[in-house]
Amino acid sequence: MGADRAHYFVHMKYLILLLLPLCGCAQGRFEKMPADLETDWAKSALPPDLRADATVFLLDPAKGYYVAHQGTNGFVCLIGRTEWEWGEFRNDLFTPIAFDPEGVKTIFPVYRDVAAMRASGKYTPLQVKDTVISRIHRGQYVAPSRNGIAYMLAPLMRVYTGMPGDTMVMSMHMPHYMFYAPYVNNADAGTVYGSDGPFISNPGSTVLGDKKGPFGYYIVRAPSDVSTKLMADGQDLLKRLEAYSPLFYVR
To answer: What is the domain extent for residue 231?
Structure first.
């Protein structure tokens, strides 16, 4: 086999793995990550000075999230593995995210409960989605009551690239800040979804109705100098992620 042909097949292998869900996703079972890798990846969502004292939640595939490290600064970090708005279970979603105390109180409970429902094996993806919608309507889940921030500064994330209805998932480098913006759409903000400037992301409004999603965000990309440093500091983590799964190979 010639070098060019071998090179082609290597890249095709990675392309297939990056664009398709992992087998077994239909059963809804989580795949467990090594605890040290999951911990370091979750903490990397935060600015470096907040990491040591943050609470870290890891995922038990049989139960959901549990506290692996109890912090003292009020911030919580985790790897999100299910986005309820899409109404599907996948094992190729990995969203390193960290919430401030307000997000811990209002947004993190949705992540926690969705993971527990999925881990129990008693819910289909659509039942999880309907349960969350019902709890929002009943006021069990509420929007943040003040301005606040969630961090996604990790050197790598594997996420949906659009809103519910678009099931494409990609691994990408995009350190960014997310400021709480409940019930706001891009028209209100004068922004364009996915643009280089600030934009609104609110998947909940896609399923609940325009401007009815309580968990929206202004997405602001990290400045280039900050992003460059975060990426440089995260090189060891990136190598460990690539060694763990070709899903995390991004070149």
So the answer is: 3-248
